[in-house]
Design brief:
Elements (H helix, E strand, L loop, with lengths): L5 E9 L14 H5 L5 H19 L10 E13 L6 E14 L4 E13 H17 L11 H11 L2 H6 L5 E5 L6 E8 L3 E5 L5 H7 L4 E6 L7 E5 L9 H18 L1 H4 L8 E2 L17 H20 L3 H10 L8
Helix pairs in contact: 2-7, 3-9
Length: 330
């Protein structure tokens, strides 16, 4: 490689008028809501859920539970491998901005939140699927996720990222249905009660290669713990309002997409095994086709193979072989 990959950052407001860009993965949670006849109603209701949850958690000096509202921007990170202006949409995340109506000011929220990646689709829906078809009882390949992890860390170290954000991202996802989580005695004033598990999931390992470690917390009023992926110190590097912005945004999406876990009618106990077969849950008023979303992941993985992995394979392999990653992850 004669010169570094060029990175660029673009912002798109996520509101009731949002239209997914042609480069946006259709399996992405925010894009999936913005399709069909009920798109505007879906988006409006999702944003209302975010605002209500934010005010419920940021309850101090907020007697009417209406002091704050949350604005959400989609952050699209593109990468130009050959320097010829041909960009590939590598990663999409969300950035929140908190509007304090009492003080009439805007406050930076969390960057990260959701995590969308075409290369991740390729890894899980093409590479891993083919590997397990050939080796049904094997574990994931040792190099699984290596390239993706290095591309992610390269992006965070780029001038484009640093020019737009002054903190590392925090990704907030669902806990794994294949693992059991155990409640601890540690309780954070915002994140809530901490849960732990004895063995990382495949997703945990995948994010570890991105330089991120994970902790699991169940905020007050939540039905189940959320998985927080971060670099640095989750509990001291971010303000209470930043943490609340991540919880309110991502718990809303999880209630829509995984109601069996996050909109359950009972709360996770001392020992918790998440399950999508759980029957005692409530549905939101937001339309979502989970089966379509899972089917499209394979299509998008193939798209990535055709338009990114194969055309740049030699360049990417040579670059990855010499790119040093962050190993200081718990």
């Amino acid at each position: 490689m004669t010169k570094p990959f060029a990175c660029s950052i673009k912002h798109i407001r996520f509101d009731e008028n949002y239209q997914p860009a042609s480069s946006t993965r259709m399996t992405t949670n925010f894009a999936n809501l913005a399709r069909g006849e009920q798109r505007e109603d879906n988006l409006r209701k999702a944003l209302t859920m975010i605002n209500n949850r934010f005010n419920a958690l940021a309850h101090w000096d907020n007697p009417n539970a209406d002091r704050y509202s949350v604005e959400v921007d989609i952050v699209s990170a593109n990468m130009d491998i050959e320097g010829n202006g041909d960009e590939f949409p590598v990663i999409e995340m969300l950035q929140t901005t908190i509007v304090d109506h009492k003080e009439n000011k805007r406050i930076n929220g969390m960057v990260g939140n959701s995590f969308s990646s075409y290369v991740r689709d390729y890894d899980f829906s093409v590479v891993l699927l083919e590997h397990f078809n050939k080796n049904p009882n094997a574990k994931a390949p040792d190099d699984f996720g290596d390239l993706h992890g290095k591309l992610f860390q390269y992006l965070l170290n780029s001038e484009a990222y640093k020019a737009n954000f002054n903190k590392q991202p925090v990704i907030c996802l669902s806990v794994s249905t294949s693992k059991t989580y155990y409640r601890t005695t540690n309780v954070h004033p915002v994140l809530g009660v901490e849960y732990q598990q004895n063995e990382y999931s495949l997703t945990d390992d995948y994010f570890h290669k991105m330089g991120l470690t994970v902790r699991y917390f169940k905020p007050e009023g939540s039905a189940a713990p959320l998985a927080f992926y971060f670099a640095g110190d989750l509990t001291s590097d971010y303000t209470d309002l930043e943490l609340i912005s991540a919880i309110s945004t991502m718990e809303t999406f999880q209630k829509i997409y995984r109601p069996e876990i996050y909109n359950a009618n009972s709360s996770a106990g001392q020992v918790y095994q998440p399950s999508l077969k759980y029957q005692d849950y409530s549905l939101t008023q937001i339309v979502y086709d989970r089966e379509e979303r899972s089917q499209m992941a394979v299509k998008q993985g193939k798209f990535t193979e055709t338009h990114f992995i194969k055309p740049y394979q030699d360049i990417l392999e040579a670059w990855a072989a010499n790119y040093a990653v962050n190993e200081n992850v718990a």
